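R.M. (postdoc): so does anyone remember the format we settled on? I'll just put the structure tokens first.
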């Protein structure tokens, strides 16, 4: 109210609330009542103002005792006696959620939507004895968007703008400036309150637009209802479907006299005008679920609970009900009931406070249904991973003093399934025994995998989680890989012939590092703002967005099965894509074990799909699939050329290729000879020579050539060749029989052309695909073995004179390959000149094979293009979108 100050000057005092009326249910939780009590403003719980139509005198006396100047009312002023309405000096003003005189009544905004009005708003009027008929003080309006609902209009406009407008209205009243414009009866309507069930039923004789308007008008309370398969159901989240064709579907349901189609985006319903309405959520009884999951069986783990755990479940139920303000059963979906990110934070904190269990936000996102969440919490209490136990046809064996268990089926949409192709035997290179028969994918299987990946990218949980949450999943996967590293290294060893100790350190160790590196990048992928010329007199702003490409195809080689998968897939997923990956036909097992770990880490279905098979069928199907937008390949140059043609002819896929190499290692006379021998041997024999950056040719300065060769042969003879699982073994078998045959043919070429075979060159006389480390000297530049890649432990040595360094570099560059290179010298000038002039994607100086997850890796010329590893690898799996604004 207004009054005089101590100085005697009349000026308005601050307006103050004298009292707040609250319902019984609002006493402890309503923000208005909590704020009032904190401000020492009286709060009254008045159950009723009248009895049998007569104002209760004790209530009226209580009201008069607080001496108010103005009543500020929500809508429905007719429930307040006129004695109360007229008592204050300034009488009463009332908020009503419609543009009066249209849509008078308690369900005004619902009727605004039902009638398809393109404008909504609110009125603040002077209360009288009519039904919302008093003079208008002020009005505000907003546009109704096609998919606005009762909730969105209240949350975006009616609540926030209504509070501001009411404050403005009170100020106008206090200043004596408040207008009193009589309401016209032109266009006036009074609409019934939608509190009766028969008024909430969907009329399917209406066209799509009217049905959509009705459903959104009752969203999220009380909900428009119909029957589905004979059961009463309330529908929420309505949108008009674009197009006259239904998507592919799995389940049809009966909605009264029509059919509904359950699909990835919800429940699609055909209307009388042959259009479609789509709804996102369905409530049956107290259970709210995503419409896309209607009729599906729960895939969560079935646990047996102890009595103590049953008490925990009831605690969780109370937490959920406290947050959601609804009854909760085992199928209640947290987010379908309207929960948001702050509710997730509250949930995590309440679980921690009540049960002592520390969860991450992502645990809630990954288990949004109550029974799934219960399993997550109970397993966390037990100290067990909350991921569901995935089922597959297991290969079980006792190897390397451990029990191995791994899948042998395709991995599509989060499940291991049999393929349509002929199974292929995978063979242990050590003893040529069959490890198991692996299912293979046909083009139809690849199509299923691609569609699962597309759905996960566009509609699934993967598309909804934040970049930081995506990073948390990648970190969790890396932790699981480390937990299972001995098992992974053993599988890699028996499947590819990798020496176990090397597999543990490099094949698996670097894979883990790769996932952790790219996990850290997930929330650091960002665009930029760009200053551009303004369209004067207006101004402009341009910014870029870095976006994932979509479904990516990956085809990886057999030399580092898990590491090559990780180099490509970690960057791919960090960027937000989904993937269909074909491991090498001869070494698929670690990829399948990896797939199992993605489930245990909590990756949503469809994000990772692994389809073993042949390159000619499975690989080709990936290359040609029109829904795949990016292809990453590591392998031979010949196959890379074929892949590039397929990608161009299909849908012009983005391609990155890491192909063949003939990497030169140049050793100058000033190099430390002992170190040069060690580095030279490692550059060729590392991983049995099955190494894409292996030094395919050593150029040794003539002054040290003979001594270098002598020492190298001497050290090569000491290499321990044998069972890759033995800890003393340094050199294992070649990966597969065809490759061993190719190496023997390579040696024959060298001998035939006159190169001097001074060591090795033969298959060992024992079971398994063992090949002796081999050394050739006196190799000239025109020889086959000087030009072509062996991809095996074959050292090819040529002399050079340092008198003409440019000539030596020209010889090193005289190849169509440009993957890697190396130089050993104490002269920094020579080293830097070599690094500048050599045509290779990687240059090693006084080292070799020193790759790192943070350093970009990729070749030039016919060794391909694009990068694995480092920040640059992310660009292979991102697209840049430019956005320009004028203002």
């Amino acid at each position: 109210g207004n009054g005089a100050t101590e100085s005697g000057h009349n000026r308005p005092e601050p307006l103050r609330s004298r009292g707040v009326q609250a319902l019984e249910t609002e006493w402890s939780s309503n923000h208005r009542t909590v704020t009032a009590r904190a401000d020492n403003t009286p709060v009254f719980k008045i159950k009723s103002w009248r009895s049998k139509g007569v104002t209760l005198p004790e209530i009226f006396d209580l009201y008069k005792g607080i001496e108010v100047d103005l009543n500020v009312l929500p809508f429905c002023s007719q429930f307040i006696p006129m004695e109360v309405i007229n008592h204050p000096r300034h009488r009463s003003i009332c908020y009503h959620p419609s543009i009066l005189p249209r849509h008078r009544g308690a369900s005004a905004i619902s009727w605004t939507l039902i009638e398809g009005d393109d404008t909504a708003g609110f009125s603040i009027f002077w209360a009288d004895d009519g039904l919302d008929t008093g003079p208008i003080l002020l009005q505000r309006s907003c546009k109704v968007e096609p998919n606005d609902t009762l909730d969105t209009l209240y949350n975006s406009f009616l609540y926030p703008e209504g509070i501001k407008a009411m404050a403005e209205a009170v100020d106008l009243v206090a200043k004596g400036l408040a207008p009193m414009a009589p309401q016209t009866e032109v266009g006036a309507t009074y609409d019934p309150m939608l509190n009766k069930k028969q008024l909430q039923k969907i009329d399917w004789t209406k066209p799509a637009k009217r049905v959509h308007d009705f459903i959104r008008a009752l969203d999220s309370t009380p909900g428009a209802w119909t029957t589905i398969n004979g059961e009463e159901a309330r529908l929420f989240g309505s949108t008009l479907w674009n197009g006259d064709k239904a998507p592919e579907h799995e389940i049809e349901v009966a909605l009264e006299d029509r059919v509904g189609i359950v699909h990835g985006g919800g429940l699609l319903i055909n209307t009388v005008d042959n259009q479609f309405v789509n709804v996102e959520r369905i409530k049956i009884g107290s259970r709210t679920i995503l419409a896309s999951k209607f009729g599906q069986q729960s895939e969560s783990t079935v646990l047996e609970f102890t009595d103590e755990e049953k008490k925990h479940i009831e605690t969780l139920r109370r937490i959920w009900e406290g947050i959601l303000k609804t009854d909760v059963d085992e199928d209640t979906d947290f987010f379908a009931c309207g929960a948001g990110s702050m509710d997730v934070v509250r949930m995590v904190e309440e679980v921690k406070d009540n049960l002592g269990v520390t969860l991450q936000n992502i645990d809630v996102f990954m288990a949004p249904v109550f029974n799934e969440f219960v399993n997550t919490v109970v397993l966390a209490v037990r100290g067990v991973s909350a991921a569901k136990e995935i089922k597959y046809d297991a290969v079980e064996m006792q190897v390397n003093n451990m029990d191995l268990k791994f899948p042998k089926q395709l991995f599509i949409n989060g499940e291991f399934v049999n393929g349509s192709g002929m199974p292929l035997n995978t063979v242990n290179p050590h003893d040529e025994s069959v490890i198991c028969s692996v299912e293979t994918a046909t083009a139809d299987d690849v199509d299923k995998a691609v569609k699962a990946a597309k759905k996960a990218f566009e509609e699934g949980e993967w598309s909804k989680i934040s970049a930081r949450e995506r990073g948390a999943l990648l970190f969790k996967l890396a932790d699981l890989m480390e937990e299972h590293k001995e098992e992974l290294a053993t599988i890699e060893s028996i499947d590819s012939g990798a020496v176990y100790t090397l597999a543990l350190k490099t094949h698996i160790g670097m894979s883990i590092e790769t996932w952790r590196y790219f996990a850290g990048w997930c929330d650091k992928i960002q665009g930029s703002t760009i200053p551009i010329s303004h369209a004067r007199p207006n101004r402009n702003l341009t910014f870029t967005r870095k976006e994932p490409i979509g479904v990516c195809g990956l085809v990886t080689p057999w030399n580092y099965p898990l590491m090559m998968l990780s180099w490509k897939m970690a960057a791919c997923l960090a960027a937000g894509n989904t993937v269909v990956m074909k491991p090498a036909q001869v070494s698929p097992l670690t990829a399948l074990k990896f797939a199992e770990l993605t489930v245990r880490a909590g990756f949503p279905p469809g994000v990772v799909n692994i389809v073993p098979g042949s390159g000619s069928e499975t690989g080709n199907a990936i290359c040609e699939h029109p829904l795949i937008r990016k292809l990453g390949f590591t392998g031979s140059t010949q196959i890379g050329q074929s892949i590039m043609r397929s990608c161009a002819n299909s849908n012009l896929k983005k391609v990155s290729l890491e192909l063949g190499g003939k990497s030169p290692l140049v050793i100058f006379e000033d190099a430390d000879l002992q170190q040069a021998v060690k580095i030279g041997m490692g550059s060729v024999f590392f991983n049995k020579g099955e190494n894409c950056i292996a030094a395919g040719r050593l150029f040794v300065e003539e002054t040290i050539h003979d001594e270098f060769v002598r020492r190298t042969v001497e050290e090569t003879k000491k290499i321990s060749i044998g069972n890759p699982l033995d800890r003393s073994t340094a050199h294992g078998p070649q990966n597969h029989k065809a490759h061993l045959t190719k190496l023997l043919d390579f040696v024959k070429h060298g001998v035939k052309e006159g190169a001097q075979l001074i060591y090795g060159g033969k298959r060992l006389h024992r079971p398994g695909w063992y090949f002796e480390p081999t050394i050739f000297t006196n190799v000239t530049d025109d020889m086959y073995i000087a030009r072509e890649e062996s991809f095996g432990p074959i050292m090819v040595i040529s002399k050079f004179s340092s008198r003409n360094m440019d000539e030596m570099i020209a010889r090193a560059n005289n190849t169509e390959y440009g993957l890697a290179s190396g130089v050993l010298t104490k002269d920094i000038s020579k080293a830097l000149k070599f690094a500048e002039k050599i045509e290779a994607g990687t240059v090693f100086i006084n080292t070799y094979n020193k790759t790192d997850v943070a350093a970009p890796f990729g070749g030039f010329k016919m060794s391909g293009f694009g990068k694995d590893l480092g920040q640059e690898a992310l660009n292979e799996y991102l697209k840049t979108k430019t956005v320009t604004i004028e203002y």
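R.M.: ...and that's the designed sequence above, right after the tokens. Also worth knowing: The chain is about 35% helix and 20% strand. The mean pLDDT is 91.
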